[in-house]
Amino acid sequence: MDMLLSSASAFWIGLAIVTLIVLNSSVKFVPQNTAFVVERFGKFRTTLTAGLKFVLPIVDRVAYKVSLKEMALDVPSQSAITKDNITLTVDGVLYLKVIDPEKSSYGIDNYVFGVTQLAQTTMRSEIGKITLDRTFEERDLLNAAIVAAINEAGEAWGTTCLRYEIKDITPPKSVLEAMERQMKAERDKRATVLESEGQRQSAINVAEGQKQAIVLAAEAQREQQILEAQGEAEAITTVAMAQAGALETIGKAAATAEGQKAVQLDLATKAIDAKARIAKESTIVLMDGKKSEAGSVVAESMAVVAAMNSSEAFKSGNS
């Protein structure tokens, strides 16, 4: 009886162990961004994605565990020769992602190694198509060409290259020295050009300033002359108008009897003054004693005035 109980206990224990083994081999917990490639009797059966999955024990097995995360791969430095025969050392970084776990497992033995080698060879090929100067200027074109080549080959490997970035391009020391001399010469050239441009602009500004000063001086002189001429014209006009007014007033006054007497008196006075000036300025004056008297002078003056009046009266009568 005891032997039967012990045999039954051993059976159930063994059954439990077998059950646990079967459950452990049939239940699979697939992590996020991971794929399990399952084979049945050594042949591909299916791909398990993230979550709780079940497989048949003994006949099914997980052959490959593939990460679906984006990977950053360091591409080792390599030598490349440009179109103008300059040797460069180039290194970069590659961003890769598996999109088909089946192809990445069976299409190539090691897709990481394959993609890295392809990136190196493509880089050497692309650099060989361009010159040294364009190598530094066209990094984006080089990166795009490498990505296109990797994706073309990676289609059979179940991978895709998201981007490729060149980290550094190192030319030989002699080329670096030549480039430094060239850059220094370019900087010196730009400095000389800028200095000459500054001198030219300064000369232009000085000439423009002198020109404007001359123009302003000429305009000021012209304005001054215009103002002086206007002032002189106004002065002449004013004097002429004053003289005309004076003559008009004298003429009106002379037309009267009192005016005639005043004119006669003025003429007599002027005649006396004239003879007095002649006597003063001359050293020898010969004069008739009778006519040198003041009365004679006045009489002569009055006779002249009377003659003028008679002539004026005669003209008036004839008219």
Description:
The chain has 319 residues and is of the alpha+beta class. Helices cover 63% and strands 20% of the residues. It is built from eight helices and eight strands; from the N terminus they run αβββββββααααβααα. The chain has helices at 2-26, 101-106, 111-127, 132-137, 139-154, 173-254, 257-281, 294-318; strands at residues 27-30, 34-40, 43-48, 51-54, 60-67, 71-81, 87-98, 159-170. The strands form three sheets. Strands 3-2-5 form a three-stranded antiparallel sheet. A hairpin with a 5-residue loop joins β6 (71-81) and β7. α3 packs across α5 (139-154). The radius of gyration is 65 Å and the shape is rod-shaped. The protein starts with a helix and ends with a helix.
- The geometry reads as rod-shaped
Order of helices and strands: HEEEEEEEHHHHEHHH
- Integer average pLDDT: 79
Structural class: alpha+beta
Spatial order of strands in the largest sheet: 3-2-5
Q: Between the first and last Cα atoms, what is the distance in angstroms?
A: 195 Å
Distinct helical segment count: 8
Main beta sheet strand tally, sense and closure:
3 strands, antiparallel
From the structure above, extract its key features.
single chain; 319 residues; 3-stranded antiparallel beta sheet; 8 helices; rod-shaped
What's this, in brief?
The protein is of the alpha+beta class and 319 residues long.
Please describe the topology of this protein.
Blueprint: H1 2-26, E1 27-30, E2 34-40, E3 43-48, E4 51-54, E5 60-67, E6 71-81, E7 87-98, H2 101-106, H3 111-127, H4 132-137, H5 139-154, E8 159-170, H6 173-254, H7 257-281, H8 294-318
Antiparallel strand pairs: 1-4, 2-3, 2-5, 6-7, 7-8
Helix pairs in contact: 3-5, 6-7, 7-8
